[in-house]
Write a structure and sequence with these properties.
By secondary structure, the protein is mostly helical. 56% of the residues lie in helices and 10% in strands. It has helices at residues 30-39, 59-74, 80-98, 114-126, 134-140, 145-156, 160-178, 183-189, 195-206, 210-215; strands at residues 7-14, 21-28, 48-50, 99-101. A two-stranded antiparallel sheet has the order 1-2. It has a two-stranded antiparallel sheet with strand order 3-4. Strand 1 (7-14) and strand 2 form a beta hairpin. Helix 5 crosses helix 6 (145-156). It starts with 6 loop residues before the first strand and ends with a helix.
């Protein structure tokens, strides 16, 4: 089951003498991020999620990542402690700069069992920027769409499409407040097909436009 604190980072830079991009991809185990959140930052990892970033440069993240890459290339066993230290610094930076509190969710008795509900919610959170269909969610649990919809709504008090929309708007609110990304980019990162689609749904749920929300 995916976790909200599992992260894959892709660093890219363009060479001065070439038009080709170079990429450095780093995968950080969810258990490490959870441990750092709990033990170093005194945060409950179950209440945190990492916000998606797109085409955003972070000099500190780049510096830590390149130090890690250089140390790993040396294949020096004596540098293991240094690598572990850099990894922890990287995790702390990610959690401080890109983590946000997850919205609290009320779960009612009946409906989907907790294990199945978490599986569906994790899937939605991980694929929020994609076209998620009811059939996709029902297939996760090998249920008919009708049966899944009934049990899902019984568990959290909202239909699947209502919950999905709420989560997309919540993600948009986080990105509007915590990043400088354009509203167009935020719309696509949150699974809306256009700026106007985000604005319409955002206003229906919050009463204000994304621009007004960011300015408050």
């Amino acid at each position: 089951m995916a976790t909200c604190l599992e992260q894959s980072i892709c660093y890219s830079s363009t060479c001065l003498t070439s038009t080709a991009d170079r990429f450095l991809q780093i995968r950080i185990a969810s258990r490490l991020l959870q441990s750092v959140a709990r033990e170093t930052l005194d945060k409950n990892p179950e209440q945190l999620e990492l916000l998606p970033e797109f085409q955003t440069r972070d000099p500190q993240l780049e510096a830590i990542s390149l130090l890690l890459l250089a140390e790993l290339k040396q294949e020096n066993l004596g540098s293991r402690l240094y690598i572990e230290s850099l990894t922890n610094v990287l995790a702390v930076h990610l959690l401080r700069q890109y983590a946000a509190a997850k919205p609290r969710l009320t779960v009612y008795k009946g409906g989907l069992p907790e294990r199945q509900l978490l599986q569906v919610l994790d899937y939605i959170d991980t694929h929020l920027n994609q076209d998620i269909k009811l059939a996709d969610l029902a297939q996760l649990l090998n249920m008919s769409q009708f049966h899944f919809s009934h049990l899902f709504k019984q568990a959290i008090g909202a239909a699947p499409y209502q919950y999905l929309l709420q989560q997309r708007v919540e993600r948009a609110k986080q990105l509007l407040k915590q990043t400088d990304q354009s509203i167009v980019d935020i719309a696509f990162l949150c699974g809306f097909n256009s700026h106007s689609h985000l604005s319409k749904q955002f206003r229906q749920l919050t009463g204000i436009t994304p621009t007004a929300y960011r300015a408050n």
